[in-house]
Design a protein that fits this description.
The protein is built from no helices and 8 strands. The chain is mostly beta strands. The chain has a single domain (about 5-75), classed as Beta Barrel (Lipocalin). It has an 8-stranded antiparallel β-barrel with strand order 1-2-3-4-5-6-7-8. A hairpin with a 2-residue loop joins strand 3 and strand 4 (about 35-45). The protein is globular, with a radius of gyration of 11 Å. The chain starts with 6 loop residues before the first strand and ends with a strand.
């Protein structure tokens, strides 16, 4: 089954960018830091759980092609 959420998600100002990869990994960019965080993600329906390579975990929810994550709103690029 293909993952409908693969791709680039970003805040309106473009400062935060989440690249969700098809292999279950992600790369988060913040401003000029292109690889600020990296790790794995898991999906359960429209819920996403992140665990970066240092062990930090966070989650979010996709609603109507918008990702709500840790107080941020990200849209598909």
């Amino acid at each position: 089954m293909s993952n409908p959420f693969v791709g680039l998600w970003m805040t309106e100002d473009g400062h935060i960018r989440h690249q969700l990869l098809a292999n279950g990994r992600y790369v988060e960019a913040r401003g000029a830091r292109e690889r600020a965080y990296e790790g794995r993600y898991w999906l359960d329906g429209n819920r996403i759980t992140y665990r970066d390579d240092t062990g930090f975990a966070a989650d979010g929810e996709f609603r109507h092609d918008t990702l709500y994550h840790a107080g941020m709103v990200l849209h598909r690029d």
